Amino acid sequence: MAAITASMVAELRAKTDAPMMECKKALTEAEGNFDKAEEILRVKLGNKAGKAASRVTAEGVISIAIDGNTGAILETNSETDFVAKNDSFLALAKAAAELIAKSNPADVAALSALPHSQDGFGPTLEDVRKGLIGKIGENMSFRRFKRFANGGKLASYLHGTRIGVIVEYEGDEVAAKDVAMHVAAMKPVALSSKDVSADLVEKERSIASQKAAESGKPAEIIAKMVEGSVQKYLKEVSLLNQPFVKNDKQTVEQMLKEKGTTVKSFTLYVVGEGIEKKADDFAAEVAAQVAAAKQAA
């Protein structure tokens, strides 16, 4: 059986906001598997266990470049928030997004090979990245990007530098920008209920089934409870069904219909989403240095 350490418990607590002892119990039951432990907490504690899931520890920026009906959204990562605010790092991220929109690279490797000079480094984007790593003394990387060039109109929203959204639409520009802001705030996982991935639906059904089974009610009642929970989840995570942030009396779909606007797709990037970053134990590090100093003496 996997050993459950204090750092593992602290990491799960930071992700879920669940009580420390509940995190330890869940990790023990899940034999150290974080995904399973989070699911166990969702069953026991409801939505509370998921409210901090959007917290991220990796640093960096989201950059967006739009030129007419062509655009790109890019996540560029750094080790610390300090470097994420560095002018050279920000210039690199901006230039990379513009290159994606202009040159349509197939992947990060192709992006890195594109021509670019900055801060005395070049002639490729990769040469600039490596040069800045040496100059600043911290690793940085291009993580993911998406390019839009399907002929639809594009609207975007940046919440600071950590959350970015591009919406592909037809119709009213103001309505589309409002939707981009809504996506940044409410973080839907799909455009409509039917677009939610089967994996997410099955995971939610499993959680709902486990919770409903604890009620002790007849099977036919439990089946209805599960289906009701799944349908509620689908409405909560699909963009068109969500209450519009600027007017919760209507859904996003109703607002768009009122404005004569259609959203074809959206992309939401949150810096560090899905990245696990090693948590440094400062006290342990200091203690180790003190011990090493005593031995040297």
Describe it.
The protein is an alpha+beta fold and 297 residues long. The chain is 48% helix and 20% strand. The protein contains twelve helices and eight strands. The strands form three sheets. It has a three-stranded antiparallel sheet with strand order 1-2-3. Strands 4-5-8 form a three-stranded antiparallel sheet. Helix 5 packs antiparallel against helix 7. The longest helix is centred in the last third of the chain and has 19 residues. About 4% of the residues have low confidence.
- Quote the average pLDDT: 86
Structural class of the secondary elements? alpha+beta
**Helicity range:** 40-55%
Terminus-to-terminus distance: 40 Å
DSSP, total strands: 8
Instruction: Return Rg in Å.
Output: 23 Å
Question: Spatial order of the strands in the main sheet?
Answer: 1-2-3
Give the helix/strand layout.
Elements: H1 6-16, H2 20-29, H3 34-45, E1 59-67, E2 70-78, H4 81-84, H5 87-103, H6 108-112, H7 125-136, E3 140-148, E4 153-159, E5 163-170, H8 173-186, H9 198-213, H10 219-237, E6 243-244, E7 247-251, H11 252-258, E8 262-270, H12 282-296
Antiparallel strand pairs: 1-2, 2-3, 4-5, 5-8, 6-7
